Amino acid sequence: YQRRVHGSLHLRNLVRLCRTAHAPAMSFLFSGNNSKTFKPKKNIPEGTNQYALKKYAEATLGSGNLRLAVVLPKGEDLDEWLAVNTVDFFNQINMLFGTITEFCTVQECPVMCAGPKYEYLWADGNTVKKPIKCSAPEYIDYLMTWVQSQLDDETLFPSKIGVPFPRNFQSVTKTILKRLFRVYAHIYHSHFAVVVNLGEEAHLNTSFKHFIYFIQEFDLVEKRELAPMQELIDRLCAKESAGAAAAPASAEGLPPS
């Protein structure tokens, strides 16, 4: 649940001065150990088509062409491609948030937001049916726990050969990606200075760009949900378009932006 609040959005001012004093990290998320994050999604079994797709995705990402890396491989099943990439984005965001958890505390981030204009309330429609206001670390704990439960559900994300995806699979995937986007948005708006100080900005930017290209390719997240990061998204796409215009040969075979 996204709630829009009064205030102006200034993505140009994302980099803020780091605060010198930080409260202890939330114990319910990291159990007092800042290096402990949610476990990665269980490995995709070798010999399955999803494993082959995972290896293909890794190879295309290694080429450095993110726009090409998100395109559905010829002849492959869309649901399997969505599943492989959704698991990968969960693992990426898990690791990225793990680098800044000691700075994202109830005291430092009492509200889950993406800048002064957007606040997120948590509800999963099951254990929490009515949207509740909570701190950023609490919200992200709820969110990542919920996503992990979806990914670990073999009826939703089957990993065995011959087991079909459910009819609601794409709907569930869209909800997962919509919610994972909010973690990116919070990191950029509230912790980008920390990310820069840690030397992780290139990793964050590449991961976010990959995520945006993927959701654009398959129209997985509504534009209004992307509003907190729209300025940066527009810059990423404009930069890519400018690069493609300057070197048209390198863009051969790519879908339009």
Segments where pLDDT lies below 50 for 5+ residues? 4-38, 247-257
Rg on CA atoms, Å = 18 Å
Task: Give the helices and strands as they follow along the chain.
Answer: EHHHHEHHHH
- Shape verdict: globular
| Most strands sheet | 2 strands, antiparallel
What is the terminal-to-terminal distance?
Answer: 28 Å
Structural class: mainly alpha
Q: Please state how the strands of the largest beta sheet are arranged side by side.
A: 1-2
The share of residues in helices is: 40-55%
Mean pLDDT over all positions: 78
Number of strands: 2
Percentage of residues in DSSP E strands: under 5%
User: Helix tally?
Assistant: 8
Structure, described:
The protein is mainly alpha-helical. Helix content is 47%, strand content 2%. The protein has eight helices and two strands; from the N terminus they run βααααβαααα. Strands 1-2 form a two-stranded antiparallel sheet. The chain is globular and about 50 Å long. The protein starts with a strand and ends in an 11-residue tail after the last helix. The model is unreliable at 4-38 and 247-257 (pLDDT under 50).
